[in-house]
Each structure stands twice: as C-alpha cells, then as structure tokens.
C-alpha cells in the first residue's frame, strides 16, 4: 500500500507531505483554525491532557515511574496552543516544532514566554531531535500525517532524544473496533488509524506502552481520541 502511495523508491514522498502542508497553509492562523473549526473543544482537550500528565507524575516505579518534568517538546505545535495551555504549566522549558512557518511566527506572539526556548520549523518526518534532551515529547494531532514507515523512524529518533525515564506522549484521533483498517483522507493525506494500529507501531519501534487514556467529554460526532505514553 505504501509503495503505491509513495512510489517504489519513495519518489512521491515529498508530494505526499506537500498536500498536508498546502492544506494547512490555507487555514486560519488561530485556535479555531488549528482545531479545524472546533475551538469549543480546546479547554476540554487541555484539561484531559493535564490529567494524563498528572497520572504520569504519579506512576510508581514498578509501572515505569518516576518521570521527569523539566523539558518538553511540542511536536506539531501549530500556534502554540498546547505549549501555552498545557506544557508550560507542567514543564520549565518547551521547544516547539511545526512545519508551517506562519503558525510558528504566530506561536512566538501567542505563547509569549521566555521558557519557550526553540521554535523549530520542520516536518516531523525530517525532525531529528537532539539526543538525551527531553523529559516528555508531546505529539498531538500530527502523527496522522506521517506514513507508517516515517512514523516508525520518527518514534525511534524520539526514543534517542529522551532523558533517562523520559516519555513520549501521543494523542490522536482513532477509529475504534475496526480490525486493522484505516482510512486516508485525500484532501490532506491524513491517516485515520485504529487504536490497535498505534499500539502495534509503538511496539514495532521498540517502545513500551506505560499507560493510555481515552479523551472524555468531547462532543458527539467527533472521532474518539486516545492518549498513549511510552518509552
């Protein structure tokens, strides 16, 4: 399937990612824009993510704790909604990674914190984080734009970028209860995977799942959202 989408030698890989880049270049530079018109869910989203991070803080040693909370990386940061509302409330320092330059420019004004350290303009398929840098790498609503091979490679690079006891957190829309099936939206080449598909990819990348949580209290009609923590 991926050979069909990307070409025998990956010659269509750039074209694949350009579709998502073009889509986001045409969206509004605002919280409502980065949430696809669902600004109403922002508070509920942040609250559940904060609960998830608090659960990580409370993990006992036999379940993979304790986890550090000094330096985080916000992957697919957009205008910095998650950095401002979540990560800077739990961590001392945050780096923001975002492929769309106009969003990253807005993020500097939106976040307005000297604890937001690096603003890195690159797609995650090409992002190679500094080894042993982060306590938490937060990946939200952006893994769906990575192909399976690129997500595998990216997670392996993230693993190298973790400090001892560091954790990768992935929060994503999923399809629940469909055996191995997923759907590609040709408008932006986003991939709707099952929750089990993500578990398989996490394991394949040599990572161990520590805990997971389903996002509560989202409006009916939206896809289920799962959070996974692993290292």
Q: Can you tell me the residue ranges where pLDDT is under 50 for at least 5 consecutive residues?
A: none
Q: Please write the CATH class name.
A: Alpha Beta
- Helix percent reads 25-40%
Kindly provide the radius of gyration, computed on alpha-carbon positions and rounded to a whole number of angstroms. 17 Å
Question: Can you tell me the number of structural domains?
Answer: 1
CATH architecture: 3-Layer(aba) Sandwich
> What name does CATH use for the topology?
Rossmann fold
Give the topology string: H per helix, E per strand. HHHHEHEHEEHEEEHEE
Strand order of the largest sheet: 3-2-1-4-5-9-8
Summed up, the helix count is 8
Strand content: 15-25%
Biggest sheet architecture? 7 strands, mixed
Describe the global form: globular
Give the strand tally.
9
- State the CATH superfamily name: Vaccinia Virus protein VP39
The computed structural class is: alpha/beta
- Average pLDDT: 94
Q: Give the N-terminus to C-terminus distance in angstroms.
A: 28 Å
InterPro entries: MeTrfase_NTM1, SAM-dependent_MTases_sf
Binding site for S-adenosyl-L-methionine: 76, 81, 124-125, 140
Protein name: Alpha N-terminal protein methyltransferase 1
GO cellular component, one term: cytoplasm
Throw out a few tags for this protein:
36% helix, single chain, 9 strands, 231 residues, MeTrfase_NTM1, Rossmann fold, alpha/beta, two-stranded antiparallel ribbon, S-adenosyl-L-methionine, Alpha N-terminal protein methyltransferase 1, transferase, seven-stranded mixed sheet, 23% strand
């Amino acid at each position: 399937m991926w050979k069909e989408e990307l070409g025998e030698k990956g010659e269509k890989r750039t074209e694949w990612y350009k579709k998502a880049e073009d889509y986001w270049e045409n969206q509004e530079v605002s919280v409502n824009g980065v949430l696809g018109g669902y600004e109403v869910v922002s508070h509920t989203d942040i609250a559940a993510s904060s609960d998830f991070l608090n659960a990580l803080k409370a993990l006992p040693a036999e379940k993979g704790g304790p986890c550090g909370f000094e330096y985080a990386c916000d992957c697919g940061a957009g205008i910095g909604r998650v950095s401002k509302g979540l990560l800077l409330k739990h961590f001392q320092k945050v780096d923001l990674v975002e492929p769309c330059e106009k969003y990253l420019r807005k993020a500097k004004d939106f976040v307005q914190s000297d604890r937001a350290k690096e603003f890195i303009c690159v797609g995650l398929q090409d992002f190679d984080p500094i080894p042993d840098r982060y306590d938490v790498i937060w990946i939200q609503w952006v893994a769906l734009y990575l192909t399976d091979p690129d997500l595998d490679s990216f997670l392996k690079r993230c693993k190298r970028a973790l400090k001892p006891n560091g954790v990768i957190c992935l929060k994503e829309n999923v399809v629940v209860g469909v055996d191995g099936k997923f759907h590609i939206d040709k408008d932006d080449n986003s991939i709707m995977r099952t929750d089990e598909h993500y578990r398989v990819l996490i394991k394949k990348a040599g990572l161990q799942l520590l805990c997971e949580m389903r996002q509560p209290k989202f409006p009916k009609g939206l896809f289920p959202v799962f959070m996974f923590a692993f290292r």
